[in-house]
Amino acid sequence: MSQHFYLTPAAQEGVAAQVRELATFRSGVLSQKELTGLYKSNPEAAIFHKAACYITGRLPISTRAGHKQVKCRGTGWVNAGLTLSPHKEAGNFLVGRHTLCQWSTKGCRIPCVGTAGRGSMDLSKLSRIARTLALAYNEEIFVNAVATEIVAASKLAGKSGLLLAYRTNLASDLTWLAHDIAQLAKTASPYPITFYDYTKNQDPFLLGRSLYVTRAHSHHNMKKTERLLPLGLPISVVFDITKHQPLPTTWMGSPVIDGVHHDLWFLDAEPYLDADKTVIVGLRLIGSEHKKNIARAGLLAVQPAC
Ligand code: SF4
After folding, report:
1. What pTM was computed for the model?
2. Which of 3, 76, 104, 303 is deepest in the core (most CB within 10 A)?
């Protein structure tokens, strides 16, 4: 497995020093309170410490309690995912200020799903950046650790008669990572696992049913969306409607399913995909009026009648 992106020399040494500390048990894992305090006085030290905790297996890497994830309770599914840093949030620590969202636009970066709501809190940001640093520190260790967590979660779910769904890019857009993790975990788990994701990559690549991927539409890429529409793929569209307004039933001639209610949109998409029909995963424009205006100006959100 080769590295896709790298830490700067200073960040590599910062994380390595913390990994050595943890390995020799000279220091333990900081509590949330200690970490919050350290983040306020010395953000880099807090980030390096948490990245080292992920690398050494002292903390779980996957996240399980997102708002939409909680909504999955009662569906017979449990879901979990991986929250990395969107775009260049971790850029100061990465060679070439590497982006984790190569297809992102200004219109999606500011109202980004990854930094909205709870994601705007200090501890969430610290954890996102630390996970990203852990991935850049050693991709092989990181991917194996995440796959191991997923296999364990699938066994736990399976023993309770539940199914596991996993979203690798909760706040990033690394399709190669989703693919690598899915391949490893699926090979190792005796229970079925569904991997699903969103991407802004508009190339009509097909990863097969082992990985459901919906491509995000914006008016900037209308031509690309038009090329995708006949291909029988899921496409996500953000509609400029309030939470009290219903989603449209069709968009550009394709049926719209509800991607807002919970995160398991692939369940409703399956009958359409089985029939090779394109399906629109309908989302609502959320966030403050300021963020909504940026999304509108960036042509991210569409009117239902489009
Ligand atoms: S591509 Fe997705 S995760 Fe990345 S900045 Fe845009 S909305 Fe956020």
Report:
1. 0.90
2. 104
The string of pLDDT tens digits covering residues 171-228 is: 999 999 999 999 999 999 999 999 999 888 877 665 666 678 888 877 777 788 888 8
Residue ranges of the chain with pLDDT lower than 50? 69-70, 306
Nearest atom within ligand 1 for CA of residue 109 = 5
Cα dihedral 160, 165, 169, 175 in deg (nearest 10):
130
Sign of CA dihedral 122, 50, 38, 6: negative
Which residues are near ligand 1 (CB < 6 Å)? 86-87, 101, 104, 108-109, 112-114, 171-173, 200
Task: Measure 31 CA to ligand 1 centroid, in angstroms.
Answer: 30
Write out the two tokens for 66.
């997102």
Yes or no: say if 38 and 30 are a contact pair by the CB < 8 Å rule. yes
> Ligand 1 centroid vs 170 CA: distance in angstroms?
9
Atom of ligand 1 nearest to the CA of 200: 1
What is the rounded distance in angstroms from the CA atom of residue 209 to the CA atom of residue 194? 9
Q: Please return the burial class of 192, using the count of CB atoms within 10 Å of its CB with bins 0-12, 13-18 and 19+.
A: exposed
Is the CB of residue 81 less than 8 Å from the CB of residue 167? Answer: yes
Mutate to test the pocket of ligand 1, among 83, 89, 106, 112 (most ligand atoms within 8 A of CB): 112
Tell me the Cα Rg of the chain: 20
Q: Assign residue 267 a region: left if phi > 0, alpha if psi is -120 to 50, beta otherwise?
A: alpha
